[in-house]
Amino acid sequence: MGKINTVSLIGLGAIGAAYGSKLHLLLGDSLTVVANEERIQRYEDTGLNVNSETYHFHYQISDTAAAPADLVIFAVKNAELDQAIEEIGHHIGPNTIILSLLNGISSEEIIKEATGNEHVLYSMCVGIDAQRNGTSIHYGNLGRICYGEQNQSVSEDVLAVKELFNEAGISYEIPDDIKHSVWAKFMFNVGINQTSAVLQAPYSIFQNIPAAYDLALAAMYEVVTISKKVGVHLTEEDVKQYTPVLHLLSPKGKTSMLQDIEANRKTEVEYFAGKVCEIGKEFGVPTPVNEQLYKIIHVKEEIAKYRR
Ligand SMILES: NC(=O)C1=CN([C@@H]2O[C@H](COP(=O)(O)OP(=O)(O)OC[C@H]3O[C@@H](n4cnc5c(N)ncnc54)[C@H](OP(=O)(O)O)[C@@H]3O)[C@@H](O)[C@H]2O)C=CC1
Ligand SMILES: CC(C)(CO)C(=O)C(=O)O
Fold first, then answer.
1. Which atom of ligand 2 is nearest to the CA of 258?
2. Residue 222 belongs to a domain with what CATH number?
3. How close is the Cα of 286 to the center of ligand 2, in Å?
4. Which residues form the Ketopantoate reductase N-terminal domain (predicted)?
């Protein structure tokens, strides 16, 4: 792949709109947002408001024919991924590079398996505190997108994405070991997203009340333990590296999981505690903190359904 000229994006929520707005400023209509008619109608009615600027993206209805894009970006929630893969299928050709900005440790494998595409890079975003209210998105920090090849090579695809991000003004990092970085981010999400959802607490609580962050740490240490069983080997150093990340987030900001709870949406608990408990069981490692978080967050989802 030479230069990336066309990008298709699916998922115009907090993450998709935040990074999509940067790409739109660079690419104009060469950035296509793929969605069904109902969503497109909603986006066209008001435009997308990102940090008080209104954006009108170029939209394409999901089941219409399309030329493959140079780059496809997934920015939906984990439970929405299978449907999104199907709906953006026309935009994926044999040479299309794919980035998945979803949290968790499974989306890249799922995309590879479903599409047979050989240009899926491993990626995640870190240090971003994007919040969504309907079609209005606000972020204090855009953070950076960490990405790379699983085999750690600096491939043509990696370089093409680097050029795009440089031109769009999107901060990025190409870590030496992207799998390790994805797991470290997973560890942080397992801690902060889940405890924030249970405590219904914004980042300021974790920044200022050590006992609150201790709860998150207890869940994170279970990820450190299971990571050693799957050959990733997270360490105390990885845990420590996330303390400054937490302190850079906007104090009033909320994790994506707390936003889901407050908006009565299904959360990503299956992909956080659910995954930790699954791997723990496989290797005979107890994961009591995540077991409790899993149960409590499920009850919160049930309460939301009951109230609806
Ligand atoms: N928010 C944050 O600060 C961060 C989030 N993340 C991760 O990024 C991922 C996305 O999170 P976030 O942006 O917060 O989630 P949001 O819920 O804000 O956004 C997801 C968007 O995807 C849309 N969508 C779902 N299915 C489809 C589909 N089939 N076609 C088109 N659009 C679709 C949803 O539309 P609709 O509302 O109409 O259903 C929604 O707008 C998650 O994995 C999250 O964990 C990572 C880092 C930080
Ligand atoms: C790390 C954090 C909490 C913010 O970037 C996140 O990934 C999320 O809200 O899902």
1. 9
2. 1.10.1040.10
3. 25
4. 9-150
| Residue 259 domain boundaries | 179-307
**pTM (2 decimals)?**
0.98
- List of E strands, 108-248: 122-128, 131-133, 136-138, 142-148, 172-173
CATH number of 118's domain? 3.40.50.720
Probe target for ligand 2 pocket from 19, 101, 103, with the most ligand atoms within 8 Å of CB:
103
The residue nearest atom 9 of ligand 1, judged by CA position, is: 102
Residue 210 has a CB neighbour count (10 Å cut-off) of 9
Residue 304: CB atoms within 10 Å: 17
Question: Looking at ligand 2, which residue's alpha carbon is closest to its atom 2?
Answer: 255
Do 235 and 217 have their domain in common? yes
Ligand 2: atom nearest CA of 128 is: 5
- In 119-174, where does DSSP find H-type helix? 156-168
| 128 CA distance to ligand 2 middle (Å) | 7
Each residue's pLDDT expressed in tens, for the chain with a length of 308 residues:
789 999 999 999 999 999 999 999 999 999 999 999 999 999 999 999 999 999 999 999 998 999 999 999 999 999 999 999 999 999 999 999 999 999 999 999 999 999 999 999 999 999 999 999 999 999 999 999 999 999 889 999 999 999 999 999 999 999 999 999 999 999 999 999 999 999 999 999 999 999 999 999 999 999 999 999 999 999 999 999 999 999 999 999 999 999 999 999 999 999 999 999 999 999 999 999 999 999 999 999 999 888 87
